[in-house]
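Hi there, hope your week has been kind to you so far. Thanks so much in advance, here it is.
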Amino acid sequence: MNIIHKYLAITSILIGVFSCTNEDIVVRYAASTPKIDTALVNETTITYGDSIHLKVAVSDMVAPLSTLKIRVVVNNEIVASETVRTKGNKSSINKAFWVPFVANRPHNAAVKIYLTSTNVSGIEKDSILNATTAKRPVINELYLVPDFGQGATSKLTLVNADSLIYKATGLLLSTSFSYKIATKINGFKRIDWTGLVFGKVGDGIGLVNQTGESITSTDGSLVGISIFTFDALQFKTKVGGKLLEPVKTLDINTDLLASPTTLNNSTNFRGGNVYFGENVEVTFTGISGNLANQISPDYFQVTGVNTAKFLGKTGLYKAYYLTTANFLYIEPLPETLYPDVLWVCGSNYGRPSLPYATTSSWNWNSPLDYYPCRLTAPGVYQVTMYCKNEPSTDTNIYGKLDFKFFHKRGWWDGHETWVDDYTVQAPFLGPKGVGGNVKVMSATVLEGVYKFTLDTNAKTLKYEKLN
């Protein structure tokens, strides 16, 4: 037993000695500073959006290396950062770093690379590599491209070359719209994705691909957005226009712009967004002749030689003046839908003004083709048109006067009001099997100005013949 006790005691002492020895061992190296032997970037010039290719070799022949910290800086902003583990007395890296095209990237900016090599003793060696210049992408043109149905594409003009400010004026946009900004467009005036495209990125603006989000601009204090500015350096946008308040005067030549972009066929039209107030009297300038013959009877009640009271609900409307006919069309904004409005489209009708003419076709190109129906009471709509029926040129039993009520300005399958189950005042018809259209028999002689009232509650279509 004594022998066993002595053996265990000696073993315990030895274990304790070795344990203490291992814990107390600290390897210390003589003071030494790492060296950055090689630091090269392949590229002397890049375009934002490209990558730089960095080669670095570091060494410390006394103390082993620990880490190499790399920071890529443009315009005092870190655009890429990485810490690489280095081992032994020599180490090298070969890496690519992307230099993105984002806001506040000046032309011909230095791309600086900050290097910090650290050894296991914590001693550092710093170096700055400044051999690359970043250039902005060449932008020859910029276009404001609203999302489908929200407005026409417009070219932006460079108005300040130093600050890279682009601007478009004379726009006819609602107070809120979504869009992207593109350097190229195709023949349909939509985005050509081979160019640069700016969209929503996070809470700001940046480059996007075809799956990217649109930018949205809103200003409820405006009648409509007629001015758009893009700061291509800071990636910021700004909108402007006429402040919102019911108009009391309307100058055709000053307030309405030539060839409005919101019409597919704007020939001979002037147009713009106008904020009308219900029962507010408007004084017109630039309309000659009998005012009652030159403005929409559905939206105005003439009160004087050049004054009329607005009959619609207070809000923003499109005003389109046809210069060749001296006639002012009024309609809700294109995005206004049923039940706030109904839209008529068809054939063989026209504006209710002398000289009478049929101008319509089954299209939505301009007010010559379609008419808005003003909401006069819940579910009740009014539209006044010159109508002329002519015999069909084929075997069709119905004449050429033919129209239908739509829920939006434009084609929208399944969103229509059919009158085939309505009580329709003769000689107008709402026959079955013709798609819900309003018809007239081919042999019926019909011509004049008709004020139609469509009651969707009672399901009736009635009219008053005005002349």
User: Anything to note?
Assistant: The longest strand covers residues 124-135.
